[in-house]
């Protein structure tokens, strides 16, 4: 019945072309489906004859310039029905629904009655009239809804209804039908909703639509007929297994909606299968699918139709796979020598890894959403609500999973966050304390859930719909979706399988940007080692002062009247801090460890509530009024821009002196235990002037000399600066000759460059991103035009002044794939990110390197 | 007795040279005094023979390489005594005391006994022995203190005391004496205290000292002999008047310490005068002084000696004049055609003007200092202590001058600051709220007086010495010195005389940088007009919302549930704001007025104390708990980096809409009253993204269209952006095509570039500047390396993208002379500064232009 494509050469113009092995068809001009069909044609697969319409043609159609459809139809078998399928550049961008059975009319109905039987032919015609009426002629669907499809005159009723609504008879001319279908599909691509939808998926503003006009394989008939899809893998796992759907006497993708009426594909004891019904066609189908996998170099979902036992391949798309499956598929294709390991690495989107590192809510689970916020740290966890860090620790001690619910978190909550299985806060954005720490720990976290009411004093949260959840109630935080769910939905475990490891091994082989980890605790360091980080790029030391016992000493230090008293208080912390560092050095076993000196403002260590002030007054043996006054006097208007970082280092030098000593003593003690000597890296935060570096460097060197003398042993260390003020970027050329390394702290740098506090940005960031004021939250994706420009200036000036200086990024952006790409392009030596982002960063860095190679070659 | 200089030519080497009209002497090699003496020699004035020692020579002397003083002395009359005077490059840098009577010994004493009488000769010798002992040989002064100078053997006692202490006899050889004097003076220049002293006055680290060895004119003798200083102006007023001191039978500057024993210079009924005693010498002296003024092109203080009726000119220095006198002198010299108006402009230091604009504590007054802080706004004022803005207003209503004392000030204190004569705060730095507003209003202001204890609840402040000053007590704030004084010291009125105006007129003729004013109120605008500002460069509008009656409406607006309610609340403010603008336009009479749209965070308009919250709850008819919760929820961690400026404009668009309408309606109403049409400038604050500008621009344009339609009249306006985030500088090329002007707000820009809150920096800024971490408080002097670099980048990119864009600076730095110079070099169109800095800025801009011309020519 059908003519095969290689028999004929047809080209209406260069934009409307029969798909032949040599026709000028490209995804960028005719769309992905047209290109795929051409590939199938080249493989000599049984593809029905297809004419491809280019983007330009479809654009012209939308403007009313319809091509001569009579000529177009002349390429097909005279009596054939045709279908029109969308062919956008990327299948993800959507497009209008495929239209089947174009050309169906009184004559065709009569003709098909002979082969299919009158009932089937009339049903096909009736369905087409209704589809055409609603989707092409845009008539009122209500006019057809009352027609009983089983009535003997259902077809006639439909034709009458059409004529009544359209005020003209149903068009009998196939060319007219086709013209109208093309016009309708072209216009729907230009609709506002379609445009918004595809732009949300990353399509450019001027994304084009191609159309493929294909001769129909009916899927109906006396012999085995039907349609379905088939793939050679399980799309959930990526493991080899024939999966799919097939439905007898069906068209298009009917099989996918058929439920239990669908047949099994392979022979199955549970019921009839395609393999049994049409063994030859099935064997041919498997052969074609394997060929497509081999030659199209991907696991393909094959869309096929069988007409009277004869197989037609209608289309093939890349199997829509789960994250885990996508990784396994890429690895298997490479192991089967179908693609290179490089290509396998390029095929996995970095964020897919991220989702796999944490348990998730099962995609099939029922979701009782009670609140939403910013998806600050991926993964999901279920537990009982607690409202304080202390309660979280108590809960953990009882081995009872809990969710820590806070207005916002602060350093003193860190232990509570560790104890909780997830964190939920009312305030904050992507780089608020809860978000940063949550990601670092791998705790699922939703922040800025401002639509729920938080009533911590009444120990309850209230959902938008008024439901109240009290302390002890079970909820689930879905940090991947940014939602809060009532109860305990079904979960899916984290899946770090061999494919995951293989892929990362291949990625590491390509990668030329080192990846370190931001790790503050022993737990972080262990996670980081498991994820094969190349060292610690940022160890924040302040959390070490919040542990019970240490905090009181810190407060004594803060209230000390003289430098001597301060030194005495700090001397109590020295052995503890030394032990902290020694353990970190031991875990990292020779890999570099970069320790940032004390950064936060001192008032963060002081209580603000009445009870805390009273306790503090007792501990210090001072009147409450006195303590209150001094605590108030230490308050700052803008703590972010206040007395912290190196400014404390300069004005209260005893803290840095103690820390330097702890680092050096730990260095010697860790080195004593064998292996290569430890070479610690010391980083000065919040620098804005060269002199700050000179002063601190001199004091640290003095401390080093003292330790060398006392211990009678030598060691070396590296000193660097955390570049996190715009000024430090601008004067990087001044600073670089005085340091061994510079590390851009892009969190603070972003705050200062925009004049935007990460803690306060949550209030309007959503508005801003939705209105397109910011393309994206700059705390989430590095702002290349502003912050990135400062990075570029800083890097250029630093390298010019000191070519040996090591340059890196250690902000949250260090884990963002786009930002990693950017930093590699700038020529940084390494990126450092939170532990659970290390695999993502390794992959992203590898992809950047490969893409670069491709672009250079 | 003396040989005249032109008789002989002497040069030991090129570093030790007799001062002749052609000797190679320059201030940079031999010092200012040597150069001045050479000029006097060229004028053929009776200058004793002098040999100049270069900086290099003196450096060598300090290291022990003494020149051959015998040869040096050979140039003088064989029996002459000599003196050695310091000659540093700038006389302000100090130097060792002049040493007189070198060469005095037994033989000279005998010789002089014949001419002066034995008593005078022996007294001279004795004084020399003692001076030499203490200042040259560095012997213990106690050894000489017990000697009764009237005893007949006082000389012999002194010589013995010398021998006892020095363990050698007093050196009789004049060459030895001279060698030791040179060594002693050279060394004292290298002492630490001398170095610190001159560096504090701006001397470079390697500043050199020259020495002048001069033949003595004795000032002693039988005929009229003595010494003194004379100048042709009153150094306090700068008006022409012969002033000075003369003392018979005296040497050096004895006359200056002589008190009532000094003679008048001109004939005077109150007592004897030089004019009567030595009319010829006096006439000659006046003639010489006039010649010096004419030829040295400055009002000079002439140091002279008369020996037996014969006049010698020993030195001349520029008259040390008061600020007011310095201006008048410069103007008079120019009016007398001695210097050009350009030179007159260059001779006045801009800060001199600043001091003249305000009353000052009289330099002669007794100062009972009870506290010190940062000299935030110049001038001094006396009044009774009040602790609240309300009390200040009440006090002003009683016409009782008061000093507003606050921990810090906030926008709601502005009316209180207006009412007070001066402001004193515990906290803050050069750009804290109190400082900025204080300078704007011209109120003397001391901020950051942290050494005093502020106890506002007890309505008292406690001085460092424990003295308590209560509400109602009288104190004086000296904002020029940064001190707080007890009681009411004698004051000096502000002096804006004709010379001041003439100088500024000349300055304006040279100036090529326009100067505008930062003026928020009608009072500011009037001050600015008096100081001839070229328009308003920054009118902050937020203060307009703090007036009583308006504040409640603002609070209603903030608590409004819907945009409609917000609009309704703002509609009440519209007529008030329109009236504000109309009045400003009227005062500025056609000069440009640049209005910055609403900038501060909304929570600044909400109360924080219990009483205020209760009032607010009543006014809004809401439960206190509800109001408290919402006020708390609006609090920000870092308000500086929060929801304010254009971010409010985007998210709460009703405010800018109301303001734009008020501006446009005022424009039409003000234009209706005659003259050229008003063209308002509207400035968007805190921009960090181009899209912010596009959105606000579109909304403002919409409002403009609406007003045009409603009123049926056309108008134009200019739209611009306040560039105050680092990002706005970096993307200035993106922004510039969308605006008419850009104005750098260097206050906020400095805060963000450094990551340094101006409100919190006070805590450590002193430490930082003292330790040299920052060369200078960057809020005081524009940081050219960091912030200035962003200005340069922003300006270049903006001009490249839109050559017509008008670029200016409107931060506090706009009034700082160095910063003005820098902005002019960058190529800005204008600078805008606080009202009382306008004259300073006009002068500084003129000097920059003149200096540029000089450097180019």
Reconstruct the topology from this structure:
The structure is a homodimer of 857-residue chains.
Chain A: E1 11-13, E2 16-18, H1 27-30, H2 32-42, E3 50-53, H3 55-62, H4 69-73, E4 82-88, E5 99-102, H5 106-116, H6 118-136, H7 142-145, H8 154-166, H9 174-190, H10 192-200, E6 209-215, E7 226-233, E8 240-248, H11 274-277, H12 279-296, E9 300-307, E10 310-318, H13 323-335, H14 341-347, H15 350-356, E11 360-361, E12 369-372, E13 374-377, E14 380-386, H16 389-397, E15 402-406, H17 414-419, E16 422-425, H18 433-441, E17 445-447, E18 453-455, E19 460-462, E20 468-470, E21 474-478, E22 483-486, E23 491-492, H19 498-510, E24 514-518, H20 522-530, E25 536-540, H21 550-559, H22 563-588, E26 593-596, H23 610-620, H24 624-634, H25 646-651, H26 654-672, E27 681-684, H27 690-711, E28 718-723, H28 726-730, H29 732-735, E29 741-744, H30 746-754, H31 758-770, H32 787-801, E30 806-809, H33 817-826, E31 830-833, H34 838-856
Helix pairs in contact in A: 3-9, 5-6, 6-8, 13-14, 13-15, 13-19, 14-19, 15-34, 19-34, 20-22, 21-22, 22-26, 23-24, 26-27, 33-34
